[in-house]
Write a structure and sequence with these properties.
This protein has about 230 residues and is an alpha+beta fold. About 35% of the residues lie in helices and about 25% in strands. About 35% of the residues are buried.
Length: about 230
């Protein structure tokens, strides 16, 4: 009996490991020529690099940009094609291009965030939020809950009708906004959440949250730009 339980535990553990490895080992495939290409260094901070990974490899993802900083106009943008790379290779390339970032996988969801804010209690995605347990929930409700936890009030997002109808089961305990977004990304399976730097306020402290699904147009709270 003990041996059987041990084997079941090992099998279950290996299944989790295999699931994570399968996400990182997926190949980025461009549906059309240039569809997986980005322009560096801008594509890292504006979220396009992360979006190419999510969209072209069908990987749920959470991306957080750092506060706006100076962009030297003398830097010449360079084209970089992700087509054919594994998700792991692409993520390592992103970090090599901009070492401010760190990536990890959480239950099959890729999370990309700046190193300096991962442990920052004041960061938006580190804010506490009550748990959610619903049989049917949409991205609109998740977006509203996450935004309210950060800004202290509800902001009604404007979503395309087709996006608003997509519902899924969600069970996430009380934790952080990041925990909620990761759980929703995993449950939905085809979404990238992002806090794009271009949507922050003039004082570089404004918060905005948006998302893109693999098959649908961008959506977000009013005034955001989800790219």
């Amino acid at each position: 009996m003990r041996a059987a339980l041990l084997m079941a535990f090992i099998f279950g553990l290996s299944s989790v490991v295999d699931a994570q490895e399968s996400v990182l080992d997926r190949r980025i495939k461009a549906g059309t020529p240039g569809a997986a290409a980005v322009w560096l260094p801008d594509a890292v901070a504006n979220g396009m690099f992360a979006w190419r990974i999510a969209d072209c490899a069908r990987v749920p993802l959470v991306f957080e940009a750092p506060p706006l900083d100076y962009r030297d106009p003398a830097i010449v943008a360079q084209r970089f094609d992700l087509d054919g790379l594994t998700v792991r290779e692409a993520l390592d390339s992103l970090v090599a291009q901009d070492q401010r970032y760190r990536w990890e996988t959480r239950d099959g969801v890729v999370v990309i965030r700046p190193n300096q804010i991962i442990a920052d209690a004041g960061d938006a995605l580190n804010q506490r939020i009550v748990g959610v347990r619903r049989e049917r929930v949409g991205l609109e409700e998740v977006l509203t809950r996450a935004t309210a936890a950060v800004v202290g009030r509800e902001v009604s997002p404007m979503l395309p009708p087709a996006t608003a109808r997509q519902e899924f089961a969600l069970d996430v305990p009380t934790g952080t906004v990041l925990d909620l977004l990761v759980a929703a990304a995993r449950a939905h399976g085809r979404v990238m959440w992002l806090t794009p730097d271009a949507a922050r306020g003039p004082g570089q402290s404004g918060f905005s949250l948006g998302f893109r699904t693999f098959a649908d147009a961008a959506a977000g709270v009013p005034g955001t730009t989800a790219r």
